[in-house]
Model the fold of this input.
Amino acid sequence: MQDALKNMSEPVGSFCPLNSDNGVDVDSVLQLRHIGQPLFLSESGDKTRLYAGALPLDSKNQQQAKTFSGMVLPCRLEDLGDATFCRDHGIRYPYLGGSMAKGISSVKMAEEFGRAGMLGFFGAAGQSLEDVEIAIASLKRSALPFGFNLIHSPTEPELEKALVELYLHHQIRLIEASAFLSLTLPIIRYRTAGIYRNDEGEVLTPNRVIAKVSREEVAARFFAPPAEKYLHQLVESGDLTVAQAEMAAEIPVAQDVTVEADSGGHTDNRPALSLFPTIMAQKEQFQRKYGYRQKLRVGLGGGISTPASALAAFSMGAAYLMTGSVNQACVESGTCDEVRKMLAETRQADITMAPSGDMFEMGVKVQVVKRGTMFSIRAHKLYELYRAYDSIEHLPVAEREKLEKTFFRAPLATVWEQTRSYFAVRDPRQVEKGEADPKHKMALLFRWYLGQSPVWANRGETSRKIDYQIWCGPAMGAFNEWVRNSFLEDVAQRKVVTVAYNILFGAAVLQRANQLKQQDSQFLFDSSILAPLKIEEIKEFLS
Done:
């Protein structure tokens, strides 16, 4: 406000009444959309009038300055979150494209985010090490900000270890840690690799972790320094020196924690309004307890797909936003056009929970689209059979025949040979365990269906459309409702940066509209003020 008031001697800006007889005044909407420009309210008779630019002190309109009654502050996109977060990660806007497995959050998506001053993560989960290495080479050539995903793999710990080794080898400096139930040695190895103390005595780490959590106990582990048991193991293996292990006690495992609310994929369906304040309070407790030089920060993901949800997150204190489901429906995602079309038709009620392929035996679930597929019903059936029987051989004949005819479309013996060949390369210990334990063999067989279903979806195998597994949260439905009758209703127009700009810009406009409403109760605005705009139109308002 002080900067704006300093300019009050400048020429008078535009002037308009706030209200019209027909609802929203067009001039008022335009003024609010110039988000970098302060607005001034002046009482004029029984009406409030709005000025852009500066208050008229030295003009024939001095009377308006005398009746100054309020002000709408500028709200730049850069100012919506935590500026230190953007500075530390080398980006302009506090907006992240979260990782979606199987390369759905693609190299192209990460590049587009980075080029726009945002941050995107490549979805490494479920990808082969060779495919991840190809993605690494592509993104490193781009010289843009980017990150890679590290998903917790409790049933395949060697895979998690191998992925970390790959990241360290290629000097990947930022990962998004997702679906962790507890911390593991590989993620501590990643975080502490190369740790050192500078000349000022500050402990620095080349590698950063952004943790995505939906449970307080998991957040606590990321906010805390690395556990001593892991540091001892790293010292014993020669990956850390004793001095480096001591330094690690001065840093959190993750400086940045994303509160994952009701998201697609792995989720606990936690409501953001209750979960986010809890994790924020935790952050303050850990900051005080350990006295970190680094500032702990908390972002929010899950359910964010409109200006209103974005502003709600920032209003609660989110340092940054993370989006997911809406990006999958964009042209840069690593899925097919058929899935994008299905997502564009998804409503909030078209979402359900289904057993997860990577944590099947543990009963962990993921959030998926139910409209247009039978995946969730079939996945639940497989889990029921797994719980009820000890082996494939114990399945009733009718159940087995149904599985072979409709779920697998092949004899179970054939599916087992495919599964066996797959794990012989990926993790031979799974094959050994499966051949020794019939229950585990049955789990691996059932996981074949759960693992293939997202592949069929991404490839657009139409014959398998009924089995598509499409990870998605209710945010997708909210987005579709917001953009209905706008250019973004067309799937071909949905680009990740266009969507991101509209969410951020809409949040800034809504912030200003709320300020105006608080100061003039007669101010009228409706959803038209948040209508999606083309990027070039938004940039006109930003200039």
